[in-house]
Design goal:
seven-stranded mixed beta sheet, Enolase-like, domain 1, FAD/NAD(P)-binding domain, 3 domains, alpha/beta, 13 helices, five-stranded parallel beta sheet, 24 strands
Length: 471
């Protein structure tokens, strides 16, 4: 067993690990990146990237099948899931191979192995090919091990009937029907992906509405779309268990004290994710945990000097871009720079149909913090560009401080919300005011004009929608 000495060791090559390794190399730190699976972690391999590839493909099919109002008629889409999976896998291969190349190109060593702490400064590397283990001694160790889907009692993943998100993304055919347990963003993104190409969708949610973490008016637009596309939504429901009957999964659901049976070809369980902190030997380090998450400060340092953590293992929100930002901060901290994680805003996107994106505070959150709130809202239904692409559902909503007109938060549900939210994030991060957005000339005709009009509406100056009457 050889001993390897490094200044820094990064455990996990997902979006909370590989950017840290790249940045460490850029800063001249002698570092090593260790990953037991494929480079890129969940996001690149079985999460963000492959899911968006399938979402994009099925959205194209859905739009083509609903283009009659534009004077275009297509036959029923012919979906070749095997071919679609090959296309998706090609994208993943390009990105993951690129990650490994960038890590090595910036001077950081890369190894595929399982990492286990022997102490606060020592980590054992175990190789899958049976090669002798190594011990890495490092002054700085970054834990970036990510998260995995939560498994609920009675629904063990079998890869056939009961699927997690990874299993759903690997389906080689379009299932006739699907039950999604969990009305959050992962379940709805994947459920609607297959619904768009013919799967009968049923969503089971324990609370009283879908997307309970989002504003109700945002969630309502997506809920209506699911129903318009023939889906069934069962809220206030608890999945108790399942049996196989006649080649179908029959799920027992408790609703209002009564049991119901729902059947489908496959069941997707998407009730959340848990951090990967078990099996790392953390008990040998003294690192403090809180409900399974690693506790860190603004510099991503744990309570143990020299040990840091980034990404999903440090808590909500479990988002790839948040993990990457933290990864770059911790690399700079290790390199001796005076960096801290002081982001004012972390945008969030739900790739449903239509998309939802948020940045900053909601109206309720702003009021809870003591702000006197003003709201501007502009619907896509009256926006020229939205009409021209036949995507008029949804709106842009801006929350401002009514006293000084500073932008506190932005919510979007509608076409290309995922791209539009970046302008909002910049506005909040730089401390912009509603007139800063409203007085910025936006090109016409574009979807971005909705942001400008919503900002003007918040201060009573919108041109293409009626402003509230001043008393």
């Amino acid at each position: 067993m050889a001993t390897i000495k490094k200044t820094a060791l990064v455990i996990g090559a997902g979006t909370g690990g590989y950017p840290c390794a790249i940045r460490l190399g850029q800063l001249g730190v002698d570092a090593m990146l260790v990953e037991k699976g494929e480079p890129g972690g969940v996001c690149l391999n079985v999460g963000c990237i492959p899911s968006k590839a399938l979402i994009s493909a099925t959205k194209l099919a859905h739009k083509a099948s609903h283009a009659e109002t534009m004077g275009l008629r297509f036959g029923p889409p012919q979906v070749d899931m095997v071919k679609m999976q090959e296309w998706k896998s090609g994208i993943v291969r390009k990105l993951t191979s690129g990650v490994k190349g960038l890590v090595k190109g910036n001077g950081t060593e890369y190894r595929q192995a399982t990492a286990t702490f022997l102490g606060p400064k020592q980590v054992q590397l175990t190789y899958a090919d049976g090669s002798p283990s190594d011990v890495v001694e490092a002054e700085h160790i970054v834990i970036a091990t990510g998260s995995v889907p939560i498994e609920i009692p009675g629904f063990a993943y079998d890869g056939k009937r009961i699927l997690d998100s990874t299993g759903a993304l690997a389906l080689d055919h379009v299932p006739e029907s699907m039950i999604v347990i969990g009305g959050g963003y992962i379940g709805l993104e994947l459920g609607q992906t297959f619904q768009r190409v013919g799967t009968k969708l049923t969503v089971v949610e324990g609370l009283d509405r879908l997307l309970p973490a989002m504003d109700k008016d945002l969630a309502q637009v997506v809920t209506k779309q699911i129903k318009d596309d023939g889906g069934e939504i069962v809220t206030g429901a608890r999945a108790k268990g399942w049996t196989e009957r006649d080649g179908m999964a029959v799920v027992q659901v408790e609703v209002g004290g009564e049991l119901r049976e729902l059947s489908a070809e496959v069941v997707l369980v998407a009730v959340g994710r848990r951090p990967v902190t078990q099996g790392l030997g953390l008990e040998k380090t003294g690192v403090k945990l809180d409900k399974g998450f690693i506790v860190v400060d603004q510099r991503l340092q744990t309570n143990v000097p020299g040990i840091y953590a980034t990404g999903d293992v440090v808590g909500q929100p479990m988002l790839a871009h948040k993990a990457t930002h933290e990864a770059e901060v911790v690399a700079e901290v290790i390199a001796g720079r005076k960096s801290v994680n002081d982001a004012r805003v972390i945008p969030a996107v739900v790739f449903t149909e239509p998309e939802i994106a948020t940045a900053g505070l909601s109206k309720d959150e702003a009021e809870a913090k003591g702000h006197k709130v003003g709201v501007g809202k502009f619907p896509f239904s009256v926006l020229g560009r939205a009409m021209a692409i036949d995507e008029t559902k949804g709106f842009v909503k801006i929350v401002i401080d009514a006293d000084d007109e500073r932008v506190l938060g932005v919510s979007i549900v509608g076409p290309e919300a995922s791209d539009l939210i970046s302008e909002a994030s910049l506005a909040i991060e730089m401390g912009a005011y509603a007139p800063d957005i409203g007085l910025t000339i936006h090109p016409h005709p574009t979807l971005g004009e909705a942001m400008m009009e919503a900002a003007k509406h918040a201060v009573g100056e919108a041109i293409h929608i009626q402003n509230p009457r001043k008393r």
